[in-house]
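Hi V.,

You were right to ask for the full record rather than a summary. Here it is.
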Amino acid sequence: LNRAKLGEQSSIDIIIANHIRMAIKLATRFHSSGAEMDDLVQEGVHGLLEAITRFDTSRNIQFSTFANYWILNSEICTSPVSHSMYQYGSSSPLYLASTSSCLVKQ
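Predicted structure:
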């Protein structure tokens, strides 16, 4: 993960290959809402890339937990589903405190 954060393409490819199933699984949630599956998966990969750049290895959380948020966030921004269904309030985990997402913070 450290080499991927430095921009090493082969490491980024390995991380995406290992986590693409999570992006596909989350994309199936929004497929019935009218968004194209290909677009949702592509946004999920974009969320994975965002998670790679934002992940802090010094914190005691798993990458998959962190990536799950960014994949979901990217797919919600693409999906026509109501954004109000997915609001993160004051109960958000601390590692999500500095988000620049389309999810509404209360």
